[in-house]
Amino acid sequence: MAATLLSSLRSILLQLFDSGAIKFADPGQEFTLKSGAKSPAYFNLRTLNNNAKLREEASGLMWQACQLGDNATYDCICGVPLGAICYADAISLAHDLPLVLKRPFAKQHGVSKKLVDSDLPKGSNCLVVEDVVTSGTSVIETVTALRDAGFVVTHAVTFIDREQGGKERLGTEYNVHLSSVCTGSQVLDILYQNNKISTELKDYVQQYLSANNMIVAKEPPVQAKQLNFQERALLTANPVAKKLLNIMTQKSTNLIFSADVDSLDTLLDLASIVGPHICAIKTHINTFAVENFKLDLIYKLRNVADEQNFLILEDSKFADIGNTVYKQYVDGYHICEWADFVTAHAVSGPGVIEALVKGSGNRDRACLLIAQMSSDGNLVSEAYTNGVLKIAEDHSGFVAGFICRQKLSSKPNFIHITPGVKLAAGMGTLGQQYLTPDEVIKNRQSDVVIVGSGIYQAEDPLAATIAYKEAAFAAYNDLL
Ligand code: S5P
């Protein structure tokens, strides 16, 4: 980088750091990113909006970073909404490039429901501008909308590339070349050289950025199933998924107990008995009679879970629009406070996950998406399941895996969890279809079984738990 550009970049980064737009967290105090992933580095360029001069300078650097050479240029420019529109606008004004606007959501009223509304000729080459790129998902959304509207998109530019897989994904999967003014490592170097951060912090954040590529390779070099739970934990960014994989290894159990009992008192008693043999307990908090409901009992369950090293999975099956899900998750039964992870349908789109990410705040939380169901005659189609996988991949920082009938994804970070399990296969009551632990883990290559009535209706729930645990874990070991 030329000396003048470097000095301009240095001055911008130092001002961003001093104004709190670039922040770093010590181990254990990580920030939650938009995708739900935790990170010790936080780059929020929105504060550049407060300083017109600085914004103009930053836009100038972006423009220089994405020059095509040979006097070639772009026909128009589009900023990823909302954060990067101001940079696209500054470049548009400075270089007389038509500005294309992409809406964050399709208009619900009026004549046009399009995401991109422009009367520029089809085939115009549009440069896409973003402020910070991590996994590249937001740039991809804008590229896709522009292409759907007839634009050609070959190049995108960002101020900071966090070097967490976005550039590679854009290049290999979308044929878009991403240029950047600087990378996450360069930000660290410049701040370190200017005595803003210590060597320890620089090394810690650098290590995190290098180890947490948000894009798990399309085809992992080793088949996911050949990796054991412990190895997969190392490849998993979500803290809950990581914890579950580690618990399964430490306790030799891939059994979740579905505690569909009549009262919270019974649930607590059973949890203490079966706790040593399960990796998680699954609750349906809204099945308890309202008049008997005592929230303090659920906090007692939290204590038992922590003491006995198992997680709590609240099977809420959230399915509404984001705003309602947020209220159900945060206010209804205070689920966000005591449940490590929850289930959600993806039928209403990614807003459900975004609501859960928001409701989780700084807590270590995750969700499982319902990708398939065990009930007879359910309406889940293959196309729907594929849609669920796509949403999960776009939100892999928060989605820990799937409720499913078989292995669906080869990505080692996604945990496959299967309900409808009994030692004897067959039809249950009200349309439930049961498979055996062997069928689920060995033949269908799922990772974890959920067992409810097979345990709580057994004469000896502890003996039944041990039998399910041993059957499911032996099937897992046989596969390795
Ligand atoms: O497709 C599904 C998804 C879920 S989460 N089928 C299911 O049975 N479940 C849940 O798993 C269901 O709500 C119940 O809590 C548990 C199965 O219980 P069981 O008694 O049939 O083992």
Automatic annotation (TrEMBL):
Residues bound to substrate: D260, K282, S374, Q432, G452
Domain Orotidine 5'-phosphate decarboxylase: 254-468
Matches recorded under Pfam families: OMPdecase, Pribosyltran
E.C. number: 2.4.2.10, 4.1.1.23
CDD domains linked: OMP_decarboxylase_like, PRTases_typeI
Catalytic-site annotation from UniProt: D315, K317, D320
Pathway where it operates: Pyrimidine metabolism; UMP biosynthesis via de novo pathway; UMP from orotate: step 2/2; Pyrimidine metabolism; UMP biosynthesis via de novo pathway; UMP from orotate: step 1/2
UniProt keyword terms in alphabetical order: Decarboxylase, Glycosyltransferase, Lyase, Multifunctional enzyme, Pyrimidine biosynthesis, Transferase
SUPFAM superfamilies: PRTase-like (SSF53271), Ribulose-phoshate binding barrel (SSF51366)
Highest taxon of source: Eukaryota
PROSITE patterns the UniProt entry points to: OMPDECASE (PS00156)
One BP annotation, GO: UMP biosynthetic process
Single annotated GO MF: orotate phosphoribosyltransferase activity
Family per record: In the N-terminal section; belongs to the purine/pyrimidine phosphoribosyltransferase family. In the C-terminal section; belongs to the OMP decarboxylase family.
Designated name of the protein: Uridine 5'-monophosphate synthase
The organism of origin for this protein: Trichoplax adhaerens
